[in-house]
Amino acid sequence: MSNKAFYLDKLKTEVNPVKKVGWDNVERAQLRYEHTAGQLRYLGCTSVLDYGCGIGGLYKYVKNDMYYVGYDIVEEYKQDLLIPSEQFVTKFPYTSVFDASVLLGTFTLNKEELSNDAFFAEFAKVIENNITSNTDYLVMTGFHEGVDKKDPKLYYFNINQLVKYLHSIGYVDIKITFPISPYEIFLKAKLSL
Ligand SMILES: C[S@@+](CC[C@H](N)C(=O)[O-])C[C@H]1O[C@@H](n2cnc3c(N)ncnc32)[C@H](O)[C@@H]1O
Is 55 in the pocket of ligand 1 (CB under 6 A)? Predict the structure, then answer.
């Protein structure tokens, strides 16, 4: 089953909005949205691109403070959106400029069974082609390698590789914390001028 097929299946079969986009822990998802919104406010962001937004779970946490656009590859999310339909896009390049790009678990699922190198290359392609040109701040979450039992369908970032890579393409002030779970990275970074 491909990544897209997995998400389509979740959309059809799950009822809870958080589970519809593939998360299995509702409490942690809420924590992820709350923490992200707080950090975006702390950074002074007035606009955000939610890259891999699902049905837009983050939207209600940021809508009073900033302009929001969500992008996702799954067009079928249109039926269940938690955001106004005109703020959901399914085509890139998207040329508007945002203060921050957010990727909440966009690169966690590895149903395509890519090797670690191939998966990281896909991630890097998105960052370089679609994120660096559009935004100053990068905020992302993803699992990391320090997990005892690894789920073969998920991808686990190597933190050193991730930080080294982001430095190499011009990100500074890279901060990694673990506010959601010990296994989940919360990363924020700024693109240097
Ligand atoms: C675990 S879900 C999280 C959804 C949302 N960020 C949230 O936290 O509610 C990951 C999402 O990333 C999307 N996605 C995966 N790969 C993507 C890509 N290359 N470009 C855009 N979206 C992608 C999936 O379709 C899915 O909606």
Answer: no
Q: Is the CB of 180 under 6 A from ligand 1?
A: no
Residues 6 or more apart from 63 whose CB is under 8 A from it?
none
SS3 content of the chain, % helix, strand, coil (to 5): 35, 25, 35
User: What is the number of structural domains in the chain?
Assistant: 1
Whether the full predicted model's pTM is greater than 0.90, yes or no, is yes
Closest-lying ligand 1 atom to the alpha carbon of residue 18? 9
Separation CA 129–CA 115 (nearest Å): 21
Please state, in angstroms and rounded to a whole number, the distance separating the CA atoms of residues 67 and 162.
28
- Bridge partners of residue 56, in order along the sequence: none
- Domain hosting 59: range is 3-191
Work out the number of other CB atoms within 10 angstroms of the CB of residue 18: 20
pLDDT in tens, 174-188: 999 999 999 999 999
List, for residues 102-127, the tens digit of each pLDDT value. Answer: 999 999 999 989 999 999 999 999 99
CATH number where 55 lies? 3.40.50.150
